[in-house]
Design goal:
single chain, alpha/beta, Alpha-lytic protease prodomain-like, Alpha-Beta Plaits, 12 helices, about 55% helix, elongated, disordered N terminus, disordered C terminus
């Protein structure tokens, strides 16, 4: 859909509504005079119908002049609902007048036609003129309503279309009257009344949906499909949509990674706005960003509950898993190495019970029991013993950070040689990125020096005076 200049759109809608007022006024005059002269209830019904169209067209013109006003301090979302409010009023007016016509039609049919109807040639000429005007205004109003997505002009098109159908019914009735069937005029009038009431009820239903902020189904489905195409760690938590005067108002709440910076979160929101506007043109989109902190909160509460059991000395590898509509947890618990299996199992059973009490929203809990490691006896190796290990570490750190390591130390334990590496990274870098770089350094060192028993990499903010460049994570 091509974008439409709002000023041109507003001017075109008002111009279309103005011509509808003129056309409705002409139709009322023609039908009223013809109906009074000929005595045709059908023509009088159509005059009343066109009278409602005249009022409706005036309401439409008035509503459009209000609806096109920009937002102001008292109407933050603009004045678009004025169109739908006018359309609701029009539908009520149409229903009342058509009900009165229907009652009169039934009365004439029941009393076996107490009124003579004159079907002269000029009545057919009048109806022909009316049909041409109705048809032209129906086409023009419908095209304008589709082009500018205007509820008020759609109501106008509906009025003229029902007017057209009614005029055709009256034409058939007058043809039958001229053939001697006097009751055909009342039947035609009743048909017009029923037709208008049905159209008015549909119009009222659509207007009430908008005024009550009912979510437009097609727009909502298009938005959900568009959001489903987004990749990355983004959770759409709420989608609210409403429609007024050709515009869609979309309100979104999304969750992003808690370690995302302000710029990254803002970029994510911009991405979502662009995606929604592509799926649903002419939309006003507001995106609220929240951190994905539910899992972190569960992890912290579960860890505290596990450590509250006295026999548990350490816990690690605490993992929260989102399964279906709930969460599950796994953790490693370390206990004294002199415990028996029975004692250790009884301890982790109490751990699981403690976690369930503190975090009732958790489902299953998976525990892994480990003995608490005893103290290692180590020694400091001589510099010449670790020269090759040091060179491999320095090369790996420079490769992934663009700078030399801040510190390298070695200890020889009973299990083998352990390397402790400290490297600097930009302080504003997200923790997950820093951890990933540390993992890459560790993997390269282990690959180059497989005889090392362990490699422990510590990261810390690089001093601002350090001008070395940061290397992108591959």
């Amino acid at each position: 859909m091509n974008a439409i200049d709002p000023n041109l759109s507003a001017h075109a809608r008002v111009r279309t509504a103005l011509w509808s007022v003129v056309a409705a006024g002409v139709l009322v005059g023609i039908k009223l005079v013809a109906g009074l002269v000929s005595g045709s209830l059908g023509l009088l019904a159509e005059a009343a119908h066109s009278g409602t169209d005249l009022v409706a067209a005036l309401l439409t013109l008035f509503a459009l002049r209000i609806a096109v006003r920009p937002a102001d301090p008292e109407h933050r979302y603009g004045h678009g609902k004025a169109e739908h409010l006018a359309a609701l009023g029009e539908s009520g007016f149409l229903t009342l007048v058509s009900g009165a016509i229907a009652i009169e039609s039934v009365r004439r049919l029941v009393t076996a036609g107490g009124h003579e109807v004159s079907a002269e040639w000029w009545t057919f000429l009048v109806l022909g003129t009316v049909i041409v005007i109705d048809a032209s205004r129906t086409v023009v109003s419908r095209r304008a309503s589709q082009q500018y997505d205007s509820a008020a002009l759609a109501a106008n098109a509906l009025h003229f279309a029902s007017d057209l159908a009614g005029s055709l019914a009256v034409l058939v009735g007058l043809i039958l009257v001229s053939a001697g069937v006097q009751s055909a005029d009342s039947v035609a009038a009743l048909f017009v009344a029923v037709l208008v009431v049905m159209a008015a009820m549909r119009l009222a239903h659509d207007s009430i949906d908008v005024l009550m902020d009912r979510a437009p189904v097609e727009s909502t489905e298009a938005i959900e499909r568009a959001l489903a195409s987004l990749h990355g760690r983004t959770e759409v938590r709420r989608v609210r949509t409403r429609h007024a005067a050709g515009r869609n108002f979309v309100d979104l709440v999304v969750g992003v990674s808690p370690d995302a910076g302000i710029q990254q979160a803002h970029a994510t929101a911009d991405d979502i706005e662009s995606t929604v506007r592509s799926a649903v043109p002419n939309s006003d989109v507001v995106v609220h960003v929240e951190p994905l902190d539910a899992e972190g909160d569960l992890r912290e509460r579960a860890s505290a509950a596990a450590l509250a059991v006295p026999e548990v000395r350490e816990i690690h590898n605490v993992r929260v898993m989102h399964v279906g509509d709930g969460y599950e947890l796994s953790l490693h618990a370390k206990m004294a190495s002199d415990q028996t299996l029975d004692q250790a199992h009884e301890t982790v059973t109490r751990v699981e019970e403690s976690i369930h009490r503190s975090v009732p929203e958790l489902g299953r809990i998976y525990t892994h029991m480990e003995p608490l490691a005893r103290t290692d006896w180590t020694r400091k190796p001589a510099p010449d013993e670790v020269a090759e290990d040091r060179a491999a570490i320095e090369e790996a750190v420079r490769h992934y950070t663009g700078a030399d390591p801040l510190d390298i130390r070695f200890r020889d334990s009973e299990r083998g040689r352990i390397a402790f590496v400290t490297m600097g990274l930009p302080g504003e870098q997200p923790l997950r990125v820093a951890h990933h770089r540390a993992g890459l350094v560790e993997a390269q060192v282990r690959d180059r020096r497989p005889e090392l028993a362990d490699v422990v990499v510590h990261t810390e903010p690089r001093p601002e005076s350090d001008g070395n460049r940061a290397v992108p994570v591959p």
